[in-house]
């Protein structure tokens, strides 16, 4: 087995990030999830490799594929893609519908100017019923409102199915 000194720096960094206890993801400027650590995968109840390559497209649909819904839930707000750090509370549609996943997320752009670049998403899972601070801008408020809407849609998924059948 090669020593860690013989591994490429990117491999060593990926191994270190995978060991971090706090859920995190690296999201490309295109919105594609480039890295998800083990803690994020366990929290979401999926494999980290299943998340890689999924594009975070923020939408309100509850009928998309489960992995696309997970990616949409952790999609950074617009100002993060524009190069400004942001925080948001996300409500993630759990694969296991018995769980309610809520986290405070710090979106940290990893570039210095307004050009598009990768974004680090650091999640702090919250206990059920824990209050979140109010969003600081109109864009974050809209992002939070769409999150709340998505949560209502996912929570009421059974009612929607019965109403359509």
Account of the protein in words:
- By secondary structure, this protein is of the alpha+beta class.
- It is 36% helix and 19% strand.
- It has seven helices and five strands; from the N terminus they run αββααααβββαα.
- The chain has helices at 9-19, 38-44, 48-51, 66-73, 78-81, 138-155, 157-164, and strands spanning 24-27, 33-36, 86-92, 101-109, 119-125.
- Strands 2-1-5-4-3 form a five-stranded antiparallel β-sheet, sandwiched between helices.
- A hairpin with an 8-residue loop joins strand 3 and strand 4.
- The chain is globular.
- The N and C termini lie far apart (57 Å).
- The mean pLDDT is 78.
Which consecutive residue ranges, at least 5 long each, have pLDDT under 50?
A: none
Measured on Cα atoms, how large is the radius of gyration?
A: 17 Å
Describe the strand arrangement of the main beta sheet, using strand numbers: 2-1-5-4-3
Helix content: 25-40%
Give a quick account of the main beta sheet: strands, pairing sense, barrel closure. 5 strands, antiparallel
Number of helices: 7
Terminal residue distance:
57 Å
**Structural class label:** alpha+beta
User: Residue-averaged pLDDT, rounded?
Assistant: 78
Q: Can you count the beta strands?
A: 5
Shape: globular
Beta-strand content estimate: 15-25%
Helix and strand pattern:
HEEHHHHEEEHH
